[in-house]
Amino acid sequence: MIEGTLTGVYTYMARPFAALGDPPARHYDIGHKGLDIWTDMLCSDMALTNNAYGWYANFTNLLATNDFTQQENQIAWTYLYKVVNLSNIVIQNLGGNDAELPTQTTKHMMGQAKAARAYAYFYLTQLFQREYNPTQEILPLFDGESNLFAKQPASDIYDLIISDLTVAIDLLGDFQRTQKYQINKPVAQGLLAYTYAAMGMYPEAKVLADEIIATSGHPLTTTAQLAFPGAGSGFNSVNTPSWMWGFDVTPDLAYGLVSWWGIMDVYTYSYAGAGDRKAIDNALYAQIPANDIRRTQFSTAAATLLMPTNKFFHQGRVTMGQQVVETDYIYMRVEEFYLLSAEAAAMSGNDTAAKDRLKELLASRLGGAANAAAYVDPLSGDALKKAIHLQTRIELWGEGKSYLALKRNKASVTRGTNHVFLNGQTINYDETRMIFKIPIIEMNNNPNITDQN
């Protein structure tokens, strides 16, 4: 029963209509990958270049995040707290937060459940707090034993995240997972590295990022894998060795239009294929060097201009061809930690270590070590930090990590000209429209919360 509930956490993360159900059938209600789309749109790296069906109009116009009655806020809140609730059920059925665990199986289940709870609280902090402030009261806190319905200080939320992930890393040390959707030690380390970086604890983040690189066993995505028509190309299979965490979407799940692929991929029966186009911001695209293989991830054809047709695609490559989705969901890959290690080193004043990590990543992107060195070696100080941030945006486009980087770097972004809404506008990371609002349904049902921020 406990194993079934734990598996339910993972399947819930990828489920269509995960938060609100069907009805009301909100087609952007697709679990974790829905957050990935929204956050890439918030930081403006993902442009809605044609608004054919309206699902993302209010969001890309930054209206939904300024209105607590909008369902985008409710979906994010409900989805993440449901992950907390399901994780708490597993933890309590194993004996509670401080349980003595008699077997390896129970240790492994507890480690996964605590890491899943930490994952949900981490994303809640990122979406619902403008920037890290330990004294600000931000979220209710439920750990399965104490139900604190009033907003608790960020320090208490982060303390739980760090505690959960630290315990998980220990419990999962010898866990050999059977599915890539399961959280193992390197994934828990990755979540903790992101948590430390969000808090500005860059030395701690770097230690974890470096350990993932050294011990996880995940190699860098190869040049051929990065873009079609390379051998094994496309970000569509959990079997890709660089993927640390992902979900194996199989035909028996019967995912179709209401899925990440149904929103993003022209080679799937999708909104993208029918004209609701999501593309890389053209100002960001213009900063990708001409010799960079990642530039070829994006289409130059007029009908699909700058859409990720060579990065995310069904292998059949027939427009609107994939009816029942069998392409997989990516949650985390090892490149994230080369970039986070470089960022952490630069933020800590260690330019040499930052440049070494960045060159390791870019050698296979820029056509060799010499080209990578020519790009990286002249950089230092703020210019190096900006370059690492830029490379994070390029490398991880469409994977839901750029919003986190925007906040860590306390940056602003100026939208390119290919956005339907707010094109050319400069947006700062800490504007109120850049964070989600506590939804009206929570305020109506929880008298302990009286404001949406």
From TrEMBL:
Alphabetized UniProt keyword annotations: Cell outer membrane, Membrane, Signal
Start and end residues of each SusD-like N-terminal domain: 41-195
Sequence ranges assigned to domain RagB/SusD in this UniProt record: 297-453
Matches recorded under InterPro entries: SusD-like_N, SusD_RagB_dom, TPR-like_helical_dom_sf
Pfam families, per the entry: SusD-like_3, SusD_RagB
Keyword Signal (UniProt): yes
UniProt key word Hydrolase: no
Protein family according to the UniProt entry: Belongs to the SusD family.
Protein name per its UniProtKB record: RagB/SusD family nutrient uptake outer membrane protein
